[in-house]
Amino acid sequence: MGKQRSIEEKLALLEAVEETGNVSLACKNAGFSRVSYYRIKSAFDQGGPAALQSRRKGANHEKKRIPRDVEENIVRYSLKYPHLGKHNMSTLLQRKGINISATGVRNVWRRNQMGTLQDRLLALLHRIEISGDALNRAQILAFKKLVQNDSVAQSMANDWENGKTILEKRLAFETLISELSTIFINLPVERIDAQIEKGQKLVCESLGLHRSAFMEFSEDKQTLNFTHVWQMVKKEPAMYPHDMIIARKTDFFKKLLLKREVVSFSKVEELEPTLREVKHALRKIGVTSALVFPLGMENNTLGGISWESHGSQCDWTPSLIERLRLVSEVFGNALSRKRAEEALQSSLREIKGLKDRLQAENLYLLDEIRLEKQHHRIVGQSKSIRKVLHQVEQVAQTVSTVLICGETGTGKELVAQAIHDLSPRKDHPMVKVNCSVLPPTLIESELFGHEKGAFTGASNMRMGRFELASGSTIFLDEIGDLPLELQPKLLRVLQEGQYERLGSTKTIDVNVRVIAATNRNLEQAVKEGQFRRDLYYRLNIFPIQVPPLRERVDDIPFLLAAFVKEFCSLMGKEMNNIPHKSIEALKKYAWPGNIRELKNLVERAMIITKEKTLRIQLPEPADQLLDPFETMEEMQRRHIIGALNRTGGRLYGERGAARLLGLNPKTLESRMKNLEIQREPSFSTDM
To answer: CB-based contacts of 461: which residues, under 8 Å, 6+ apart?
Structure first.
């Protein structure tokens, strides 16, 4: 049996073999056999220095991963004594209370890229630069040992300079990402687009890239559109035509982006052969390498952002990809916030518009409810009224403009309502405007609306009737009384569907069907210069002539029955008989007020009749019955004078002549002027 060898001798043998790499020479110099060396090495590898003392094989084999805090201590001691090999470092650590073998030390060094003395010294220099600490004696000795070999020293110096440069660039880029994140967090949405392009410039300049481009999906996710592009060398136009080719031919990129996958290539040739046109366009732009990240949330991909190198090939290393992924997420989050804010503002505007429209419709419908309810059924069997109904059916399903002509009180509004009720727009209320009732100073505001402060008293914005009727029908009664200065604005609505509110320059688009009515001869008005010729032709696309009651006297019995039924329901009365003599007398009457006059006559008779037989008194004595030898103008003149005499000259109000005749007061005044009826001094115009 050989002599007992100390632990120090065995460790010295292991260290000599590690340094020289020659087992035979080290064993000869130390007085060990080769078999002894391999036995010692096996024991040390399995159990560390303690195994050398006990000579037990296979003890303390490390199967568990070293705890993180223990590994940090090993790294710290390795940098403090960088000249020690793994065996001596294991011995040192055993003395410090850290039970680890040489193999464990080697594994820690490998994980931390400290396997060689050169690696440990480089790591030491990086740590000293950050901490500012001085070298200890052991570290200085390690450096002296290393620099004895000039080539190793030069290599280390180069590695140190390169490592320092890389570290500085990495720290600068991380600072840039932090600054961009801070900027975008509180940046107003209207400034995000400009800031994104500034950010693209900073990132590209920092990493030596030549171009960056945002691509956003269309709403249906079918196409990609370039939105933000920065390039190092400016060319005109800034958005190349080849970008459009790429945007149209990007099924390959589109599918990958929608799958949230990163697209990268160091050479254009790496792309699929089927993307020949895209590769050609990329070469035309000058792209050599590109990296494309998806943007947006997991379930809503907005598009992608590309980072490109032109002319020189770029190898997309994992660290570079990770850094660009971080900055792309910063841009993508900002863009997502902008899109979300824009969608919110759009929704708020839409909600406000709907709210304003509902409020306006509510006010309009309340006004309509306050008005006297109209009998919406067109009653009659005469040939003339059947012709009107046939025309209504012909034009109802179209969007064409309709001009309804006829005397006052003939039921033009009922015809307009029938057209609307049979049209595809029937689910929306028909908006009605009487152009003769409103003064010229207010008619524009009523039709087209006004902005706040547009004129004295305009304390709030108000929607016009055209805006209220968008998607529905507007009925313009007495269109012949529309002021001449407003007629071009109406013509523009008819031709283009556009106009501006009073006091605004913003153009409003409307989809409105126009039905107009008049009791005037518009052709004559055109000749007299009181109505625009082009507007007349635009309105007169489909004219409907409503006959006066005197031309459809056979419908009087049907009209009487309908009116009696309506007023019986309103008044709670029962009326089941109308004398035949009364009906015949009504047929002979001239009816200057037409159906409206007949309805007023029936209402008055219903009020004063107590029994179940309706007693109707004609508005004029027998000598006022229709005279075949009397002209229409003479009859109307005499009839109006009779009404003025009966009402004491009062025109307006419930007891006025206009009410008695069933006419609009303005219409009555116009007719009096045309018939040269002078007001007597005794006539009253009080309301």
So the answer is: 449, 450, 451, 452, 501
Write b or e for each residue in 56-87: b if 16 or more Cβ atoms lie within 10 A of its Cβ, otherwise e.
eeeeeeeeeebeeebbebbbebbbebbbbbbb
Mention every residue, 6+ apart, whose C-beta is less than 8 A from residue 290: 263, 264, 265, 282, 306, 307, 308, 309
Dihedral (C-alpha) 613, 616, 621, 623: value to the nearest 10 degrees? -90
pLDDT of residue 147: 52
The reply to whether 550-624 shares the fold of 374-547 is no
What 3-state DSSP class applies to 542? strand
pLDDT digits (tens, 9 = 90+) for 625-657: 444 456 677 778 888 888 887 777 778 777 788
CATH 3.40.630.30 is the classification of domain 374-547: no
List Cα–Cα distances, 574 to 342, 558, 560, 567, 603, in angstroms. 64, 18, 14, 9, 14
Is 416 within 8 Å of 515 (Cβ atoms)?
A: yes
Tokens 């990495």, residue located: 170
Single pTM value for the model: 0.44
Give pLDDT, residue 492: 93
* Alpha carbon distances (Å) from 627 to 183, 590, 623, 638: 91, 9, 9, 12
Reading the block at residue 217, the tokens are: 């999906």
Contact 197, 219 (CB under 8 A): no
CATH no., domain 550-624: 1.10.8.60
To which residue do tokens 């609306």 refer?
Answer: 449
Burial string for 263-296 (b: 16+ CB within 10 Å, else e) reads: bbbeebeebeeebeebbebbeebbbbbbbbbbbb
Reported CATH class of domain 172-343: alpha beta
- 509 - beta bridge partners? 498
* Residue 213 near residue 228, CB atoms below 8 Å: yes
| Spans of all domains in the chain | 8-59, 68-149, 172-343, 374-547, 550-624, 632-675
- The pLDDT tens digits of the residues spanning 439-492 come to 777 888 889 988 887 777 777 888 889 998 999 999 999 999 899 999 999 999
Q: Pick the closest to residue 90 from 106, 76, 67, 79 (CA basis).
A: 106
